[in-house]
Design brief:
- With 328 residues, the protein is α+β, with helices and mostly antiparallel strands.
- It folds into two domains: 161 residues, 3-Layer(bba) Sandwich (FAD/NAD(P)-binding domain), CATH 3.50.50; 154 residues, Polyamine Oxidase, Chain A, domain 2 (Alpha-Beta Complex), CATH 3.90.660.10.
- The strands form four sheets. Strands 1, 2, 7, 8, 9, 10, 16 and 17 form an eight-stranded mixed beta sheet that branches. The protein has a five-stranded antiparallel beta sheet with strand order 12-13-14-11-15.
- A hairpin with a 7-residue loop joins strand 12 and strand 13.
- Helix 1 packs parallel to helix 9.
- The radius of gyration is 20 Å and the shape is globular.
- The two termini are 21 Å apart.
Length: 328
């Protein structure tokens, strides 16, 4: 059984930034566990034929000096670019949003396609067992999965939890999101930047042409449906849902030019309420933290989940864990 200082469950932007912050503070023995086949979480990019489509977050905005410093550095490195928006720029990764997280995770130990099955309290921390039967001891745990998944994982364990904290987290609900991805046989009539989010039909949140966005060599279009529409249609057959999406955006996408179509279902897209802290410790004694995009700094005026809230949550909880580890 191998010992680790910190185990992070979830390799989205929160988990990866927490790991980077810990490394920066001199904590090296960090292990990130991710049940999917790639890092990134909702910063997701899909390869379609010779093209690509972002089907999670399309861009990020900046409200804090902390993220602005990083964004400026990423622009200088050629990782991200100013896509559109003035005076409030929308930044996007130059080769798909997922690739930004891949770059940020290059020096982080990440185990993909692994699921945490069991967490036990042991002297000095926790024993974690994965679905491949690997077991190890860790001094601290950080869970960055969407809050409902974090609560489900915790409630399935025999742990000395802070009941009030768990109850508070249990009240966090997420809207779903459905995203249709359409490979086109010819260029679309969307604007030159490839983005539309105003004046759209009822139920449609945004449309993005990824060729015009600059990440795809062929025209691939993502159509994002709003939360209420997605909730209503989430359990329908994919074929019926894609047909309904196409019918909704016929003024923007010519159905006869659609070569291929795919559907992405996000069960946890946008939190309906937030926690006004960057992170919380849900254990009565030991360091067992939960963080993510639904955890906002008390000074956050945006009041909604987004890239920046997830990013800052990761940095803040990483600094807290580093301070705690150094004090042991």
């Amino acid at each position: 059984m191998q010992d680790r200082d910190v185990t992070i469950i979830g390799a989205g932007i929160t988990g990866i930034m927490a790991a980077n912050t810990l490394r920066k503070e001199g904590i090296k023995d960090i292990h990130v566990i991710e049940k999917s086949k790639s890092v990134g979480g909702r910063l997701a990019t899909r390869r379609i034929e010779n093209g690509k489509a972002d089907h999670g977050a399309q861009f990020f905005t900046v409200r804090t000096s902390t993220l602005q410093e990083y964004a400026d550095a990423w622009v200088e490195k050629g990782w991200v670019k100013h896509w559109f928006g003035d005076p409030y720029p929308r930044y996007t990764s130059v080769d798909g949003m997922n690739h930004l997280v891949k770059r940020l995770s290059e020096n982080i130990q990440v185990t993909l396609q692994a699921k945490v099955m069991d967490i036990k309290e042991v002297p000095g921390g926790f024993q974690v067992t994965l679905d491949n039967e690997e077991s190890f001891k860790t001094g601290a745990i950080l869970i960055t999965a969407p809050v409902p998944q974090a609560v489900e994982l915790l409630q399935n364990q025999t742990l000395t939890l802070n009941v009030e904290r768990i109850k508070e987290l249990s009240n966090i609900q997420f809207q779903r999101a459905l995203v249709g991805m359409f490979t086109m046989s010819k260029s679309t009539s969307l604007p030159s930047n490839g983005h539309v989010d105003k004046g759209l039909p009822e139920g449609v949140e945004r449309i993005v042409d990824h060729h015009k966005k600059g990440i795809s060599s062929i025209p691939v279009v993502s159509v994002y449906m709003r939360g209420e529409w997605s909730d209503h249609n989430f359990l329908h057959q994919d074929e019926l849902t894609l047909r309904a999406i196409k019918e909704s955006v016929m003024d923007y996408i010519e159905p006869l030019h659609v070569k291929d179509e795919q559907l992405k279902k996000w069960r946890y897209a946008q939190a309906s309420s937030m926690i006004n802290q960057s992170y919380v410790n849900v254990h009565q004694v030991l360091p067992l933290y939960v963080a993510g995009d639904a955890f906002l700094r008390p000074t956050d005026q945006a009041g909604r989940t987004r890239f920046e809230s997830a990013f800052l949550s990761g940095i803040d909880v990483g600094n807290q864990l580093a301070t705690m580890m150094k004090g042991i």
